[in-house]
Amino acid sequence: MRLLSTRHLKGLLKSLSKLIEFHDVSYTYNKGTPLEKKALNHVSFSVDKGEFLAIIGHTGSGKSTLIQHLNGLLKPDTGKIIIDSQDTSGKGLKQLRKKVGIVFQYPEHQLFEETVYKDIEFGLIKHNIDEPERKLRIQETARIMELSDELLQKSPYELSGGQKRRAAIAGILVLQPDILVLDEPIAGLDPRGCNELFNIVNNLYSSKNITVILVSHSMETVADYAKRIIVMDNGNIIIDGNVNEVFLKDEELERNGLSVPQITKLMKKINLKNDKISREIFTVDQALEEIISYLEGKHD
Ligand SMILES: Nc1ncnc2c1ncn2[C@@H]1O[C@H](COP(=O)(O)OP(=O)(O)OP(=O)(O)O)[C@@H](O)[C@H]1O
Ligand SMILES: [Mg+2]
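A: This is the predicted complex of the input protein with adenosine-5'-triphosphate.
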């Protein structure tokens, strides 16, 4: 028997840990018409199980188009997409949609049942989950999403903006996806609603080993929660790296109509006046730590 070399074994193990693979994916809307628009241009990347990835890019750069390829809503014109070893062009779309839960912008617009409970139950019925199991899952998801029993019995129309958003996300989470994709999840929410939602998502990420993909225009949110960032421009991935690497490229980001977190800009200005204070700061908590440690004389 031929033994695998260490190099081959490493390659094999690496490919096994990949949950999402995009290989040279292109997509054009309205092909062959005057409205033709190439929205993805030979995009390749992969995501490992358990990553928290943010996708950023100016408006129209292709972020939503990319995520709609994750559960087969859109099919690539060229290239292929593998999710958990399954090619999305093949059969098994129902299974794929259970595996990849996508929360689109303003998901509450899709709430339509008489009660929040029934709305969350809708997907479970579609997937033929029996009643006792449905009840258990809804209770567990409502607890995670901080939706009380009283709230579950209300009409979605009686809920606040933040509650509606959480109810809509509960309808996706109850299907127990391995991958949770959030497209601009905080659009239109007040700061309290944003914090509540992200604390829940972050707890879920830490406790359930779920893979999270977040599309956001808020660089603060991205810095607070994501570990890796993909930057898109005109259907291309132009930067792919960890949060520190990407946010240190402030000039390149600005050339592409993007920005770094406000706190990073401030710390860069302070660093220009006093280089003992680091400019590699991306969140308010990191800034606080850096300033306190400077004031305590730890930088001398
Ligand atoms: N259904 C559609 N029909 C035709 N063109 C579309 C359609 N959806 C998107 N496009 C075009 O494809 C390109 C990429 O759009 P996409 O919605 O993926 O961008 P985005 O990065 O999500 O933007 P935003 O930040 O505004 O949400 C844009 O030029 C857009 O106008
Ligand atoms: Mg979009």
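The longest strand covers residues 18-29. The two ends are 61 Å apart (CA to CA).
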